[in-house]
Design goal:
Strands 1, 4, 5, 6, 7, 8, 9, 10 and 11 form a 9-stranded mixed beta sheet that branches. By secondary structure, the chain is an alpha/beta fold. It has a single domain, classed as Spore Coat Polysaccharide Biosynthesis Protein SpsA, Chain A (Alpha-Beta Complex), CATH 3.90.550. The protein starts with a strand and ends with a helix. It is globular, with a radius of gyration of 18 Å. The protein contains 10 helices and 11 strands. The chain has helices at residues 29-38, 52-60, 75-85, 106-113, 132-135, 163-168, 190-195, 203-208, 213-217, 238-249; strands at residues 4-9, 23-24, 27-28, 44-49, 65-67, 93-96, 122-128, 142-145, 151-155, 180-189, 222-226.
Length: 250
């Protein structure tokens, strides 16, 4: 499976200013993310940014980068612009890798991309949950699948709801019950990536605050690659940054 990785990276961050340029063992975070992507076997890796400082940092480390408009409402819109600028063919597979994932497993990118085919324009990832607190945490997004491994629904609620098990006890998980946590890594066919920003927002998307529900609401399938374990967490807070810095300096 040939695929391209596009990494959206904005300089602005409310919780962690200048996050893409944060130093990780002598290199900016966005460069570390691109280096991980290189290990996935991707045919091309491009950073999509709205700031000249990120463009310069990428150039200094031999990473391809592309300037975009600053007013994109989401990272998906940003990578769609880059795919148009690069004139990628409609059948190209594009992986959307967030610029704050410097510990991402490169194999996960390839596995997600491999789920794209003529009938499946979008793919993502998930892993089983075993922690009861995470199962009931609305900040942990869950997904349920059909028999072909495609998403039936994404929710902040506990799905599927184990009726009998939770009627007895909600302090522990019923035997054999392992809901799937959604992992925010996406792959698209470029044809669908260009169409996606034009789709009308869905009522379910507004209720759950989950943009991917727009795709299901419009009737498009999303394939889900299930990995055995949780990927390393990304960088959202100063504490996350220190954790990742320790990885690169230890």
């Amino acid at each position: 499976m040939s695929f391209v990785v596009i990494i959206p990276a904005r300089l602005a961050s409310t919780r962690l200013p200048n996050k893409p340029l944060a130093d990780l063992g002598g290199k900016p975070m966005v460069v570390r993310v691109a280096e991980r992507a290189r290990e996935s076997g991707a045919a091309r890796i491009i950073v999509a940014t709205d700031h000249a400082d990120i463009l310069a940092a990428c150039a200094a480390h031999g990473i391809e980068a592309c300037m975009t408009r600053a007013d994109h409402p989401s990272g998906t819109d940003r990578i769609a612009e880059v795919a148009r600028t690069l004139a990628l063919p409609p059948g190209a597979v594009v992986v959307n890798l967030q610029g704050d994932e410097p510990l991402i497993d490169p194999a996960l990118l390839a596995a997600c991309a491999a789920r794209i085919d003529a009938a499946t324009p979008m793919a993502t990832c998930a892993h089983p949950l075993s922690n009861v607190d995470e199962v009931f945490n609305p900040n942990v997004v869950k997904v349920v699948l059909d028999k072909l491994g495609r998403a039936l629904y994404f929710s902040r609620a506990t799905i599927p709801w184990h009726r009998d098990g939770f009627a007895r006890d909600r302090a522990t998980l019923p035997a054999g019950y392992a809901p799937l946590r959604h992992v925010g890594l996406y792959a698209y066919s470029n044809a669908f990536l260009q169409q996606y920003p034009q789709l009308e927002p869905a009522p379910l998307e507004a209720i759950e605050a989950l943009e991917q529900l727009r795709v299901l609401w419009h009737g498009y399938p999303i394939a889900v690659h299930v990995t055995d374990s949780a990927p390393p967490a990304g960088v959202d807070t100063p504490e996350d940054l220190e954790r990742v810095r320790h990885y690169y300096t230890s």
